[in-house]
Design brief:
- The chain is mainly α.
- The chain has a domain of 30 residues.
- The protein contains four helices and no strands.
- It is elongated, with a radius of gyration of 17 Å.
- This is DUF2508 domain-containing protein.
Length: 103
């Protein structure tokens, strides 16, 4: 509970509503996921020893960044079903539609 109070205070301090903060966090998650996928491609396309070492470094950093954003969303109780229905990439998700009906 105390953590939620601190989060609300931080949001109010920065002048963002909860919905704006949620949208920003989801955008960060999507961006870090895309970065993680690019890092995977870089790793699979690496040929030389130095390229492979660099690709591993980039992949581990991207993976950690993605984990941090997911952990932050989990701590705040957010789920992709909290996105608006017109959000790209989620509008045709059958599970999402089912979940929304249940709520």
């Amino acid at each position: 509970m105390w953590e939620r109070v601190k989060q609300n205070f931080r949001r109010q301090k920065h002048g963002k509503s909860e919905a704006e903060h949620r949208q920003e966090l989801f955008a960060q998650i999507r961006a870090s996921h895309a970065e993680w996928l690019r890092a995977h491609r870089l790793f699979h396309e690496a040929t030389g020893e130095d390229e492979i070492d660099y690709a591993i470094f980039v992949l581990e950093a991207a993976e950690r960044k993605y984990q941090i954003h997911l952990k932050c969303a989990k701590q705040q109780g957010l789920h992709r079903f909290h996105l608006p229905a017109d959000e790209p990439g989620y509008a045709n998700d059958a599970d999402r539609v089912h979940k929304r009906r249940v709520e």
